[in-house]
Amino acid sequence: MNTNNEIRIEARGMRCPRPIVELAKARRQAQPGSLIVITADDLAFESDVKAWCETTRNELASLEREGDVVVATIRLMGGF
Fold this sequence. Notes:
Helices cover 30% and strands 32% of the residues.
């Protein structure tokens, strides 16, 4: 479900680098202050999303792991 301020990405079953590619696509369509919530089960996703946020200067608002599934919430800071 997407709202004006939140974009959800279902990336389970996608392998590296696809979850980050989908995140980058969503960022290009969103406004600063928006949230992107991405769910992935790729082994590299947790470290990749941390690095992506640092590199792009967006905020990793939360990172939750349940078994093999990671849910990351990113707040876009306008660091495009």
